[in-house]
From TrEMBL:
PANTHER family, sorted: ACETYLTRANSFERASE, ACETYLTRANSFERASE (GNAT) FAMILY PROTEIN
Keyword Secreted: no
GO molecular function terms noted in the UniProt entry: acyltransferase activity
Keyword Acyltransferase recorded: yes
Domain of life according to the entry: Bacteria
Keywords: Acyltransferase, Transferase
EC number: 2.3.1.-
Protein name: GNAT family N-acetyltransferase
Origin organism lineage: Bacteria, Pseudomonadati, Bacteroidota, Flavobacteriia, Flavobacteriales
Pfam families listed in its UniProt record: Acetyltransf_10
Annotated ranges, domain N-acetyltransferase: 5-153
SUPFAM superfamilies assigned: Acyl-CoA N-acyltransferases (Nat) (SSF55729)
């Protein structure tokens, strides 16, 4: 990528771009690992605007920008529980996920934790493996009555 990736804290005005990335990344990128029904339910989480507002208000929530457009986001819940990492479908494999993760890990360290934990999708597992995260267990998450498989991973910082 030629232009630099800038990281900043998310604001409530970013919600339309963030939810659009969330929906489109699930529909286009995660679809290779999940059924149509699972993708539909998961992507519909984009519509819960109150929940996105709460995440931005309460969590450590950052966005990555290229040319002033949001191309990815990440947020940290409860000090060391990394709850979300999504990169725009057209900007995959350009180092954006790595940059967001580095900043999230620094934040966990400054919160005085030595371990970071996350629930990650099947799609994201090779990325987290590349970053030396260890799989603790495979698990099932119930989303509005539909079960999605993911992995609990952790890494010592
Ligand atoms: C997982 C995700 C955030 C990674 O973001 P990214 O910006 O594409 O990742 P990077 O470019 O920083 O990748 C760094 C390295 O991780 C590894 N990696 C990333 N994606 C990979 C994949 N699909 N398969 C294999 N290795 C992968 C590679 O080693 C890569 O380095 P390389 O491109 O030089 O080979 C992104 O693919 C994504 O948005 N996935 C869908 C959403 C999702 O499932 N998020 C997790 C929710 S729980």
């Amino acid at each position: 990528m030629k232009n630099p990736i800038e990281i900043r804290q998310a604001t409530l005005e970013d919600i339309p771009e963030i939810t659009s990335i969330f929906r489109n990344t699930i529909i286009h990128i995660n679809k290779k690992d999940y059924s149509e029904k699972q993708i539909k339910i998961w992507a519909s989480g984009a519509d819960d605007l109150e929940k996105w507002k709460e995440r931005i208000d309460k969590f450590y929530f950052i966005v990555a920008e290229v040319d002033h457009h949001i191309v990815g986001f990440a947020y940290l819940k409860n000090g060391n529980y990394f709850d979300g990492l999504f990169v725009h479908k057209d900007y995959q494999r350009q180092g954006i996920g790595s940059k967001l993760l580095r900043i999230i890990e620094s934040q966990v360290m400054s919160n005085d934790y030595q371990v970071i934990k996350s629930d990650v999708s099947k799609t994201a597992l090779p990325f987290f493996d590349n970053k030396y995260y260890e799989v603790i267990k495979k698990q099932k998450k119930n989303l509005k009555g539909v079960v999605l498989e993911n992995y609990l991973v952790e890494k010592m910082l």
